[in-house]
Amino acid sequence: NQQILLVSRPQGEATLDNFRLVETETPPLRDGQVLVRHHYLSLDPYMRGRMNEGKSYAAPQPLNEVMIGGTVGQVEASRHPRYAPGDWVVGMGGWQLYSVVDAHQPGALRKVDVTRIPPSHYLGAVGMPGVTAWYGLVKILEPKAGQTITVSAAAGAVGSAVGVLAKQRGCRVVGIAGGPEKCAYVRDELGFDDCVDYRQHPDLRSLAAALKAACPDGIDGHFENVGGAVLDAVMLRAHAFARVALCGMIAGYDGQPLPMLNPSLILINRMRIEGFIVSEHMEVWPQALAELGELVASGRFRPRETVAQGLAAAPQAFLGLLKGRNFGKQLVKLVD
Ligand code: NDP
C-alpha cells in the first residue's frame, strides 16, 4: 500500500513539506472487515482545517497518520456478508491506495451503482459536496420559483450543484466565479442565468454594480462558499428578509485575513445568516442524493472535474485547490 501522512502542521500556508508518502503493508482482514481498492480520492477544502491544531467543529487530523479523505473504489476482498469483491463502495478511505474498513460500523461504507453514474461523481455532485448544496439551498434558503439566488465559487463542486438545483426550482440563478472560462461554463453548460467574474471587479463598488446588473430584482437568497468581499457586495444588493446560507469561507482557510462583513447591513436588510455543517444533517442525505443522482444520470447536470494522476500528486493538487486552481470537483485518480 502507499499512503500520504500528515507529518507537520502548517505555519501560515500549507506546504508540500506537511505531507509524506510512505509504503506500508496491508494487514490481513479480520472478521467483518473489507479491503477496498480506491479508484478516486476526493480533495476537499475542509481538509485544510483538519491540518490545524485547535478548536473547530471537528477534531484535528492526528500527525503521522493517513490524511483523512473520501474515496470511491472496489471491494478487493471481504470478510463481511454484505460486501463481495467487485462491489463499488464510497467511504472515508483516506489518502492511500487501499483501506481496510470495519464494514459493520454505521456509515463506514455505502454501496453505489456505477451503471448510470460514473464512480467519481459519488465524491462530488452525487456525494458530500452535492448534499452540501442541497441542504444549504433547500433547508436554509428555501427558494421559491421566481426568486433570485446567488452563489459564490459557482463553478466548483458545491456551487455548481447549488445552481442546478435552484434552476430546477424555477429560480433566477446568478453565479460568481473567477475568470471568463469558469463563467462561460456556469452560464452555458450549467444553465445559470448569469455569472459575474469577480476578478473583473476588484473593488466592492464595481462588484456590487455588476451584481446589480445581473440581479435586477435584488437577491432573495445567497449561498456563500468563499467569504470576504463577495459577501459584502451581495449584502449591498440583498432584499429585505433575504437569507444567506454560510457554507464555506475558503478565502481564509490557508491563513489569509478575511475582510470584515459589515453587520449593519444585516440589520438594515433584516437578514438571516445561517451556517451549517453537512455531516450534522444525515437525515437529508437519502433525499438529496436521490435528486442529485437523477439529475446526473439523466444528463441534466454534467459536473466538471479536475483530475490529478496518482497518489503522489495529491498534495500538490490539494495546495492548488486552496489557491482556486481547480475547475469543478478536484479528484485524484489512483487506478489507471
Ligand atoms: P470548489 O470546487 O468550489 O473549489 C474552491 C473554489 O473556491 C475555487 O475553485 C475558487 O473558484 C473559489 N475561491 C474563491 N476565492 C478563493 C480563494 N481566496 N482561495 C481559494 N479558492 C477560492 O470547492 P468545494 O465545492 O468543495 O467547496 C466550496 C466551499 O464549500 C468551501 O468553502 C468548502 O469549505 C465549503 N463546504 C462546506 C461544507 C459544509 O458542510 N459547510 C461541506 C463541503 C464544502 P474561483 O476561481 O471561481 O474563485
Automatic annotation (TrEMBL):
Xref: Gene3D superfamilies: Medium-chain alcohol dehydrogenases, catalytic domain, NAD(P)-binding Rossmann-like Domain
The entry's keywords: Oxidoreductase
Xref: InterPro entries: ADH-like_C, ADH_N_2, ER, GroES-like_sf, MDR_fam, NAD(P)-bd_dom_sf
Keyword Oxidoreductase: yes
Residues in coiled coil: none
SMART domains referenced in this protein's UniProt entry, alphabetically: PKS_ER (SM00829)
Enzyme nomenclature, EC number: 1.-.-.-
UniProt domain Enoyl reductase (ER): residue ranges: 14-332
Protein name: Putative NADP-dependent oxidoreductase YfmJ
Lineage of the species this protein comes from: Bacteria, Pseudomonadati, Pseudomonadota, Betaproteobacteria, Burkholderiales
Gene: yfmJ
